[in-house]
Design goal:
By secondary structure, the protein is of the alpha/beta class. It contains 8 helices and 7 strands, in the order βαβαβαβαβαβααβα. The termini are far apart.
């Protein structure tokens, strides 16, 4: 890891889940604009991608730290926060971006072969929801938050729509939104802000692995019809809006669920109820 920077250059973005996908794109973006140092935590599943990310971040001239650990459990958060404090120092974290994955797909009723187990409930809620609160608690308790820091959680449309095997993800994301609301009030008293960025489907390496090329093609076709712009959102666009939200001009956002879905659900009933001739 890098040595600590001077206090004059000590504003850091702490990115959780940063080796690939959305987290990596966000890390690259905020290093360029608004020019934050980056402390990236990942689980080591994609070492080549993590190495590429580190090279790209260092090329910006910002200070960089890459830490391999599990940031999604209460024990992991406490251990990681201690490392962050040792490296970054007090009041160094200007931006936290929670981009952790670790959810289970399945169904609730035990009549199904893929019925959720208690362990899957625990893991999904820890990674997608509870860990955001654990990080807020540790960053505040250990005086790691910089003046007017922002904590940003990421979500999707699954807490509003029904996708047959994503009920546990939807429930966890709904809990995450309520956590954001309450934390915005509590941390707002200290001058910080807490927001939730909701964006539509983006193609990540993990999604490619899970779905495969045929399913990805169908997914793309559905989104081209459903989204007014006729395409899916890109990782670069998600990363770009995080850069915007990290600026001082956006400091009045607090407790907000920021819709960046591109109108993803606007045409849902139009598509379902449209006559066969498309008129």
């Amino acid at each position: 890891m890098e040595e600590r920077t001077s206090d004059a250059d000590a504003r850091w973005a702490l990115i959780l889940g940063a080796s690939t996908g959305t987290g990596a794109a966000v890390a690259r973006a905020v290093a360029r604009d608004p020019g934050l140092n980056v402390f990236a935590i990942h689980r080591g599943h994609y070492p080549d991608d993590a190495a590429a990310l580190e090279r790209d971040l260092r090329a910006t001239g910002r200070a960089v730290a890459m830490h391999v650990a599990d940031a999604g459990t209460v024990e992991g958060v406490r251990a990681c926060a201690a490392v962050v404090r040792e490296h970054v120092g007090a009041h160094g974290v200007a931006l936290l971006v929670h981009s952790l994955s670790g959810a289970s797909l399945g169904h609730f009723l035990p009549t199904r072969d893929d019925a959720f187990t208690p362990r899957q409930f625990e893991k999904t809620f820890n990674y997608l929801a509870h860990s955001f609160v654990y990080w807020a608690q540790e960053l505040h308790a250990q005086n790691l938050l910089a003046s007017r820091a922002q904590l940003l959680a990421l979500t999707n449309v699954l807490d509003e729509e029904i996708l047959h095997n994503c009920g546990l993800i939807a429930a966890a994301k709904a809990a995450l939104e309520r956590y954001v609301h309450y934390l915005a009030i509590e941390l707002g008293a200290f001058g910080h802000r807490v927001n939730l960025l909701k964006f539509g489907t983006v193609i990540t390496p993990a999604l490619k692995t899970v779905l495969g090329p045929e399913a990805l093609s169908r997914l793309d076709a559905v989104h081209r019809e459903m989204i007014p712009a006729g395409r899916m959102c890109t990782l670069a666009e998600v990363a770009g809006i995080v850069s915007v939200l990290a600026r001082e001009e956006c400091a009045w956002f607090n407790g907000a669920t920021i819709d960046y879905t591109g109108g993803m659900a606007l045409r849902l009933f139009d598509i379902v109820l449209r006559p066969d001739d498309g008129s």
